[in-house]
């Protein structure tokens, strides 16, 4: 283990890390390459980040791979992103099994092209008995869309006049996942971009200027070390938090 990794406290790792993988386009522009080349490099970073998270002992990782709003990008880019996603699933699913990583997906998955959905479902099946870590891909995902879908499901059941947080959370795509502890966003932008709006209520946010295609294990370790310095308050005073520890 190198020096930086060894400074990590294994007892205080975030259980669930979620990542907004931003900056593929800017990386490509800097290098005078096409946006597609940026996304290709971004896919490599995603693959490495998943492996790094598993090696470091993270139990849940969620990647914002395609937003509900990304459908509005130029058709050529949407097709390229769908192809990359398919490629990722086809080339990585055996590797995920080998590393004991279970694949999960959240979002309006029925909006994905049939061929992508088939490959996604096969990969989910193949990894269904894995227990080492859960990798969730957010696909055709929007936080507002998720909340609207939950509300509509509740209305459809139609047996409640009021709901509480616990009941409502049970209708979110993330109902089987723990709340995120750490959100990492690359490329320096300070926004949530419609990602996990309900779930991020008490999540620690870490923004790095590093563009996603340059993101490596060392960047993840830095984010985790930063997380370990934070005092999480969940709305309490810092004295109250200290008493609880
Ligand atoms: C943001 O870059 C990234 C995306 C819109 C999609 C994320 C996709 C990948 C990382 C590749 C595929 C990943 C998997 C797991 C298959 P941007 O285009 O918004 O960058 P910019 O803001 O610099 O233009």
Note down, in words, how this protein is organized:
- With 245 residues, the protein is of the alpha/beta class.
- It has one domain (17-142, 180-244): Decaprenyl diphosphate synthase-like (Undecaprenyl pyrophosphate synthetase), CATH 3.40.1180.
- The protein has 9 helices and 6 strands.
- It has helices at residues 3-6, 24-30, 35-56, 75-98, 114-126, 143-157, 165-169, 217-228, 238-244; strands at residues 16-20, 60-67, 101-106, 133-141, 182-185, 204-207.
- The protein has a 6-stranded parallel β-sheet, with helices on both faces.
- The longest helix is centred in the middle third of the chain and has 24 residues, at 75-98.
- The chain is globular.
- The two termini are 29 Å apart.
- The model has no long low-confidence stretch (mean pLDDT 95).
- Farnesyl diphosphate is lined by residues 21-26, 39, 42-43, 46, 63, 65-66, 70, 84-85, 88, 187, 212.
- The site of farnesyl diphosphate has 19 residues, from helix 2, helix 3, strand 2 and helix 4.
Counting helices, strands and paired strands, the structural category is alpha/beta
Shape category: globular
Mean pLDDT across all residues, rounded? 95
Question: How many helical elements?
Answer: 9
How many domains, as an integer?
A: 1
CATH first level: Alpha Beta
Topology readout:
Elements (H helix, E strand, L loop, with lengths): L2 H4 L9 E5 L3 H7 L4 H22 L3 E8 L7 H24 L2 E6 L7 H13 L6 E9 L1 H15 L7 H5 L12 E4 L18 E4 L9 H12 L9 H7 L1
Parallel strand pairs: 1-2, 1-5, 2-4, 3-4, 5-6
Helix pairs in contact: 2-3, 3-4, 4-5
Summarize the structure.
This protein has 245 residues and is α/β, with parallel strands linked by helices. The chain has 9 helices and 6 strands, in the order αβααβαβαβααββαα. It has a single domain (17-142, 180-244), classed as Decaprenyl diphosphate synthase-like (Undecaprenyl pyrophosphate synthetase).
């Amino acid at each position: 283990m190198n020096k930086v990794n060894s400074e990590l406290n294994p007892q205080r790792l975030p259980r669930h890390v979620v990542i907004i993988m931003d900056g593929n386009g800017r990386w490509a522009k800097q290098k005078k390459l096409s946006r597609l080349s940026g996304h290709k490099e971004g896919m490599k970073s995603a693959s490495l980040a998943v492996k790094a998270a598993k090696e470091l002992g993270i139990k849940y990782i969620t990647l914002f791979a395609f937003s509900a709003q990304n459908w509005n990008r130029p058709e050529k880019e949407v097709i390229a992103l769908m192809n990359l996603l398919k490629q990722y699933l086809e080339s990585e699913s055996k590797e995920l099994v080998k590393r004991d990583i279970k694949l999960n997906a959240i979002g309006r998955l029925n909006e994905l092209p049939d061929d992508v959905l088939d490959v996604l479902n096969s990969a989910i099946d193949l990894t269904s008995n894995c227990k080492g870590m859960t990798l969730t891909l957010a696909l055709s995902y929007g936080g507002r869309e998720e909340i609207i879908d939950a509300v509509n499901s509740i209305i459809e059941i139609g047996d409640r006049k009021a709901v509480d947080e616990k009941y409502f959370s049970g209708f979110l795509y993330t109902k089987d996942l723990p709340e995120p502890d750490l959100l990492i966003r690359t490329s320096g932008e300070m926004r949530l971009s419609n990602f996990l709006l309900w779930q991020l209520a008490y999540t620690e946010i870490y923004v790095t200027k590093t563009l996603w295609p340059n993101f490596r294990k060392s960047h993840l370790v830095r984010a985790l070390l930063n997380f370990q310095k934070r005092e999480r308050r969940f709305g309490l005073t810092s004295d109250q938090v200290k008493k609880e520890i």
